[in-house]
Each structure stands twice: as C-alpha cells, then as structure tokens.
Amino acid sequence: MKKKTVVATTVSTLLVSTAILANAVHADEVETHATITAPSTEVVATEATTNATSTVATTASSESAAPVASSTSVVTASTAETSETPAATASETATVAATPTTEVVTNASTSASNDTVTVLHTNDVHGRMVEDDRNGVIGDALLSGIVNDSRSKGTTLVFDSGDSFQGLPISNSSKGEDMASVMNAVGFDAMTVGNHEFDFGLDQLRRLSKQINFPIITSNVYVNGVRLFQPSTIVDKTPGVDGDEVVVIGVTTPETATKTHPRNIPGVSFTDPITEVKAVVDQVESNARAEGKEYKTYVVLSHLGIDTTTPVEWRGSTLAEALSNYAPLKGKRVLVLDGHSHTLHTATYGDNVTYNQTGSYLNNVGRVVYNSDRVLSHGVISHDEAKKNYQVNPTVKAMIDDIQAKYKADSSKVVIENSPVKLSGDRMDVRVRETNLGNVVADALLDYGQSAFTHKSNLAVTNGGGLRETIAKDKPITKGDIIAVLPFGNSVAQIQVTGQN
User: Fold this and answer.
1) What are 234-263's pLDDT values in tens digits?
2) What's the chain's Rg over C-alpha atoms?
C-alpha cells in the first residue's frame, strides 16, 4: 500500500462529499442460472450467466450475497452487512437458445379476434431507460413505441416484475425518481417489488410508490406486521363489460432479506410466497362470489426467479407449478410473469399456467397473447425485432434525453484537471494483481479513515472486483469517471481485529 497522494485525498473527499459510497446503492445482481424444464414445458430460450467471485474487502461491503436458509418460512432483516454482485457486461453473459425462435405459438392457425388481449411485461430493467444497441438494450422510448403500437391494435396490459428503479448511475442519481417518471410515461398498469426496490431505503420506496401513477403491489412483504403495499389489484380496461377483468397479484423474493443492505429494511419481513399468493386468490374469489362476479384471468407479478441457488419453495417455477394444481384456479387462465434470476425462459404448467421471464436489462420485452379460449402465444420481443418493427415514442425519448443531459452535466464536473498516469481498472488486472488504481482507492479509504471514525484506521483494504473502470492518462478526471470506477455504493466500514486475526 502506497503513501497517500493528492489524487487519493481528492478522490476521498469526493467520495464522502457526494455520498457515492454512503448514499448510492448496490449493483445489479447477476446469478448463476440453470435451465428449468417443467412437465409440458416449451422452452423458448434460457439464459445462463456466471459471475466471478470477488475478494471481500475489509473496508467495504462484500459484493456477494449471503446464503438463505431453505427451511425458514418468515425471513427478517439481519444485522449482517451484505450487498449484491455487480452487473455483467454483454461479453460476460452467455445465452443458450433452446429453439431458434423467441415465441411459442400455442395454436398457429388461430387468428386474433376482437377479444384478444396482449400482455407486455418487463423485469430486472435496472435503470436501462436509455437505448443501447451495443449491449442490446431496447430502452424505454422504444418500449413505449411497442406499447403504443400494441394499444392501437387492441387491448394491451403492461406490467413490470421488479428491480426497475435501481441499477445504473443515471437512475441511481435521482434515487429512482427519474425512472419512475419514465415508467409513468410508458404507461404501466402495475408492478411488483423487487429486492433492489429497497436499495434506496424504505422511505424512498414509499415516496416512489406515490410518484408512480400505477399500483405497486406485493403480497408477502410486511413492515412491523402490516403489509407494505396492497397485495393485488384488478385491471379493467373495459368498464361496464363483465368477465374480462384481470386480477393482478404481486410477490417478492424472501431473499431480499440478504440481497439488500439490512439498514434498508428495518422492521421488514418476508413470508412464504406460495402461501401468500394462494391466500390472496382465496380472498379475491370469496369477494367475487359475494359480489356475483367471476374472474377468469389471474396475472402473478413475481420477483422470485428460477436460480438453483434459490430455495426450491421460493422459486417462480415452483409457484407456477403450485398454482397449476390449486383448485380455486382450475379452469382459469394464470400468467406468472417472473423476474429476479435474469433468465430468458418461458414454460407452461398443467393446462392453465403460463410462465414467462424476459432475461434482464430490457434486452427483451415479454409478450403473452390470449383470447377468451386460450393463450395464443407467449415469449419475447427481442432487441433486434423491436428495432426492426417498432418506432420510438418521441415524447418519451425527449424526456430521457433531458434526464441524460442533466446526468451528464453533473457527472462531467472535473475533479482533477489531469491524470498524469493511466490508472488501470482493467478486469484482467484488478482481479489478479496489484494495480495503481487499486492503490489509489485503498489510499483514499485510508485517508477517509483518519477522521471518519472514533479511532484512526491503520489499514485499508478494497476488493479488486469492485473496481470497474480505467482512468485515462493525460485527461481530466470527472465525477462520472469516479462513479464508473466505484459504481456499487458500498459503505466504508471499520472493524477492529487482533494481530492474530
């Protein structure tokens, strides 16, 4: 570890003054995914991703999440400090295609009729409001174009399965509020709560829930014994016409207890997903009988995923299978629109449950089409298909351009006029050897530790996997450059250990 330098001291000051470490949020999660094939399942494609394990830093939160015990039915926030694994770049993500198409057509000869309904859905967008062709990101302006095109042709419902507000500096800089405004402009009908919705803190999530003009729902999240949000909502696109209402139920992964920082979820507990969804179905069906109504379509917005590391009873696939065998739903249409595992996957369970997940980062838009008789097709609109067949919504694009300009103006503020050397944050360097960038960051942490705690720090350590960008030689260092180097928002922590430890 080198002596503190002017660069390190300046970086340290910026880290504290802009609260990049303390007030930003954890990075997008990328898990290891396995192909899941259920009985009577047609798989469109399954995305498999891997992420290298980083060394845990003494002075910052670990990037990897703690394991979850599979035997618990109620999970509450612990005092252990954990955070998420970083977002994978396009080159780090492998896609395995089970078939060359992206949509399963249940009955190709069935033409769309007047009662056809199209469901468009997203999951794990993680702040990707800006179109990015290089990484296959559709972006919200083009998403809005897809939505508008579908609505011009017939009844269309638009849903999100969580982890939308957080993920990139452009969304994190407003603590999700700009993302909420964009989602309003797109015109979502409902969303559920992902684990990363808590990353800005419980109070900010409540503020975001009031900012959006559509319901945010979840059935199994409680704060001091009271549900955080309503468990369900009913979407009725044709008031006055009975029988076409859609019951929408939300459910959130109990892994949230260890996949956001414990300080973000004080008093929050997560109950068993399947138990809670069934209980909401029972209540809705009871109310319907009392009112002389019949609901034929249920949509479950689940942020559960199908990772093999997730306890079986908490997986979206397990929920879908359980609902296919649940007597009150027999003869009804059930769509499970899932997220959390960042998996591109579609399946059917029994004769009435359709499972769909789009992958992540708005690389695809989920699409399910059904009529009064059956599900006609289910799958995704890929980035290439979206670019070829749809036009961006200019109003939403102008809104995003304004947000982007505001962010760039803030992030382009010069912190140091010139970097005399290249500070290497290359993945193949920082993960296997000492680099000058790693030394600068460690020195900045050590400098911060001289005044931030009761006892001065004697040592500072940072994990190589947390360094994500290189700072160029002979160019100014901007606030945006520093955020790019340290995007995860980990908090600086101090521990006292013995020499032996």
Assistant:
1) 999 988 888 899 999 999 999 999 998 888
2) 23
